[in-house]
Structures are given as C-alpha cells and as structure tokens.
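Hi R.,

As promised on Friday, here is the backbone we talked about, encoded as structure tokens. Could you run it through your design pipeline when you get a chance and send me back a sequence?
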C-alpha cells in the first residue's frame, strides 16, 4: 500500500512538474498579447469602411493623414501629414506628407497613394458607409510625391473628417487586385495582418519598418468573443490579456483576481433610438415620437442596468462636441407621455423595437424600453438583428429594420458628419424626411458644413439641435463609461477620444 502511494505521489509530482511549467510559459509569453474583440470587423480594406467594428484593425494596420481628436483642442493629431495649410480661398487645403513612411512591402507612402485611397472612398462600388462627408471633395491634386491639395466645392468645416481614413498602397493594390489585397492586405501602420480567420481571430505582427512607437509585442492576437461573460472568464484564466466593454456587474468578480487590473474612462458615447418615420408612416406623427421621448426613464436604465456607469443624454449629440448643451433635459413624465399618445394618430398596431450587439446589454435595455412603452400605451415587439444586417436593412429602407432600433454613435466624428449622414433629407441613413421644418433643417446642415468660423458654426448647430429637440427624429438615451480590464503583466491607457479599442502599439509590457 505504501509503495503504491509512493508511486502515485511520484506520478502526480511528475505531471505537476510537466504541466505547470508549460502553463506558466504560455502565460508568461512576452512576445504576444491577446485581446478579446467584441465583434469581427466587417472589412479589412479602409475605403470599404462599414462600421466602427472595423476600427481596431484599421488603426493599427493603416496610418492616416490625421487620427484621433485631441479633446483639448478639438483638432485631430497628425500622423502621415507633416503640415496642413488652408489656402487663401478658404476652401482648398494643402497637405505635405512626412518623408520616410513606408508600406509593409517597403514602398514609400506618397501623395499618389492618398489620392487613390480617397478616390476609392468616393467610388460608389465600394459602398463606404461614410461617403457622405467625402462628397464635399471636388478633386485631389498631386503637386509632387509628398504634396497634394484637397479641392473642395465650398469651404468645409468638417474637412478633418476626410483625412483620417487609412491609406492604401496604390501600386500594390492595382497589382494584386481586390481579392489579392483581401488575402494579403498591407498598410503603413505599426502592425501588419499575418492571418485572418473570419469569425474567429486576426493575428497581427509588428512591422519592422514603421516610423513611430515601437511595439513592445511582436504579435497581437485578436480573438472574436461576442459574449461579455465569456470574455471576463477568458481574462481570469489567462486566455486573453485585455478585454473592454466590461459590464459593471462583472467588475466586482474581476476585482477578486489579484492578477487583473481594471480601468475606466469617459469617452465619446451616444446610444439612442433610431426612429424610422419614412418606413413606418405612423411615426410621422410628432406626438407619437414625443410620447416615446418623455416616456423613457434614462437615469433608471443607467442605475439599474449599468450600475451608474454612464450618463443620460437628452439631445442627439456627444458630450463635449461643438453644439452640445449640458443644461438641456427631457424629464421622464409617464402621464404626459400617455396624454400625448392618446392625442396622437396611433391606433394600437405593434411597434417593433430592434436591437443589435453594438450596445452593451442591448437585450436588457430593449426589454426595459419595451416595458416603459407598454406603460405609455404602445403594443411592442422585440427584434434581434445582426449589426451588419441591420445596416443593410437601413440603407435599403427595409421594414425589417423595425419601427425603431437601439443604435449608437460612439466615434470621435465631427458633429456635422453625423448630421450629413442621418439628418439631411437626402442622406443615406436619414429616416425622417417629411418634417414641417425639414427644408430649414437641410439648409442649416449645409450652412454649418460651410461655416469654418467656430462661433458662427456653433450658432447654427444650436438651431439644428433646437429643431430636433422639439420634433425628435432620433431619441438620445445615454452614454457609457468605457470599463476595460487587463492582465497585470501589461499596461494600456484607453484613448479618451474613442469608444473602440485601438493603438495596440501603445500596449506596454510591465517589466
């Protein structure tokens, strides 16, 4: 018996000796950092931009003329651009590129590549979701290999928004074609794409010839993990090193692990109900939309679902952007909402509330809103959609998009961009075209786009928000803090200008 126990002890000791060093070696791999992405990018080609889900890869693989906004100056940081000069006619902009930047194949980044990329954005065949604010570009003139001029039809207040798209190498793309580029894409960013398994993972490798920050990690592995509970579990077991959009109720559990550190930051964040009167005529009645607006208790949603890690929004704008008024408020008033609905043309037909994974805890929020609207007097149905499918429905004015849907605008865009995309009667994502003040709205949106003087532009934006607040086409709900967590072997500070994980080269190994 003793001999058997001794043998068993020796076997267990041997197994522990073998298993634990291997596990430790995996956990202590200082060449690779693993990040759980909430959703798979829809495209890896910048001029085919589909949604914010594409940004994590774009920001690390492709450099751009300008990138994220400096929240103190409201100007974007220069990346490939050495200097940017507004010419005397007040509408054309001269850009000089920094010399020395190279694509991952060694070719220099030139003005010809910038022109090619912008022209591809403007090509309708590429279906770029942000083509609206590039439409103000009349032409791109290449002066020499490192100088170009953006020629706009008119002075354009949102000109910076035409310069953050990742630059694609013209010569390489034309040589390999679209399919070849998808198979082996290259940019000039700090990382290149080594492997992509759609729906599973993306492996990035540090580019040897990149100018700028040198990454601490040779390899970044992006794992597609849509479920927040699974992401938290993977962080605790060491399967990933960094997660984001951490749900507030998961924070306390993560705090019990002394190998994990948790951070949070307030970032541009706006979640709202996208109302679709042009698809469903019933929603054209202003009293129906007003009933929805004052029949939702925003603060209660923040307190109960997000445990206070957010802030209510009452106007369709990100806090801190030009035109945002922190004093404006829509009081939750159930009796007022009931009265408005009774006075409206609503006849009791079911209202479909759509939701997608782009909003954390979207299902819970949709259920709570459904409950609020039932109290007001609406019949409601919930409809879950995949985000890409939802966008397709929206572009095609398909009724399957629902009467309304939980949507988001959580990127550091200029406010004019959002208005051009969603509030103009001609915009691709505009769903309210028959409002009594729509012609005035169109005029004001075009006017703010040309107002390069910030004071003049602010006055125009105030008028736009006043019209939308009185007759809401989009109903703002709330913003959320970005809560993120990481293995203590790394350190990363979230950029304050974005809701999306990016700049992987700034992830540092803790020595």
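Update: got your reply. Pasting your designed sequence below so it's all in one thread:
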């Amino acid at each position: 018996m003793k001999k058997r126990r001794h043998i068993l002890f020796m076997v267990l000791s041997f197994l522990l000796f073998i298993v634990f060093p291997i596990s430790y070696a995996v956990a202590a791999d200082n060449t690779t950092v693993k990040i759980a992405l909430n959703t798979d990018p829809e495209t890896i080609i910048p001029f085919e931009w589909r949604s914010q889900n594409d940004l994590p890869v774009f920001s690390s693989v492709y450099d751009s003329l300008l990138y994220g906004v400096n929240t103190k100056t409201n100007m974007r940081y220069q990346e490939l651009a050495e200097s940017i000069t507004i010419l005397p006619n007040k509408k054309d902009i001269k850009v000089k590129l920094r010399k020395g930047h190279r694509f991952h194949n060694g070719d220099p980044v030139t003005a010809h590549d910038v022109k090619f990329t912008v022209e591809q954005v403007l090509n309708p065949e590429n279906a770029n979701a942000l083509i609206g604010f590039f439409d103000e570009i009349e032409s791109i003139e290449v002066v020499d290999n490192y100088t170009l001029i953006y020629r706009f039809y008119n002075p354009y207040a949102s000109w910076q928004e035409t310069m953050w798209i990742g630059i694609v190498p013209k010569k390489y793309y034309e040589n390999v074609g679209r399919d070849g580029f998808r198979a082996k894409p290259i940019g000039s960013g700090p990382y290149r794409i080594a492997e992509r398994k759609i729906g599973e993972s993306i492996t990035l490798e540090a580019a040897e010839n990149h100018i700028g920050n040198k990454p601490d990690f040779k390899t970044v592995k992006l794992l597609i993990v849509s479920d927040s509970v699974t992401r938290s579990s993977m962080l605790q077991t060491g399967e990933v090193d960094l997660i984001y959009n951490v749900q507030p109720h998961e924070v306390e559990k993560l705090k019990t692990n002394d190998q994990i550190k948790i951070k949070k930051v307030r970032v541009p964040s706006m979640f709202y109900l996208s109302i679709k009167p042009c698809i469903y005529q019933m929603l054209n009645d202003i009293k129906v939309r007003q009933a929805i607006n004052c029949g939702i208790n925003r603060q209660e949603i923040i307190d109960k679902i997000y445990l206070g890690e957010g802030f209510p929004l009452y106007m369709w704008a990100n806090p801190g952007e030009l035109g945002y008024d922190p004093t404006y408020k829509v009081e939750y008033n159930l009796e007022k909402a009931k009265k408005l609905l009774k006075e409206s043309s609503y006849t009791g037909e079911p209202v479909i509330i759509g939701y997608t994974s782009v909003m954390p805890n979207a299902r819970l929020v949709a259920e709570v809103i459904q409950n609020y609207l039932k109290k007001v007097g609406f019949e409601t149905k919930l409809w879950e959609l995949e985000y890409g499918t939802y966008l397709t429905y929206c572009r095609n004015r398909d009724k399957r998009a629902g009467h309304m849907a939980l949507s988001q605008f959580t990127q550091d865009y200029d406010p004019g961009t959002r208005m051009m995309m969603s509030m103009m009667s001609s915009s691709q994502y505009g769903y309210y075209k028959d409002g009594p003040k729509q012609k005035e709205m169109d005029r004001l949106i075009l006017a703010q786009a040309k107002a390069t003087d910030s004071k003049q532009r602010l006055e125009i934006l105030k008028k736009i928000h006043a019209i939308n607040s009185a007759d809401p086409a989009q109903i703002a709900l709330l913003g959320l803090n970005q809560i993120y967590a990481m293995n203590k072997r790394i350190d990363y500070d979230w950029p304050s200008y974005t809701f999306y994980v990016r700049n992987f080269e700034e992830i540092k190994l803790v020595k």
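One thing I noticed while checking it: The longest helix spans residues 2-27.

Thanks again,
M.
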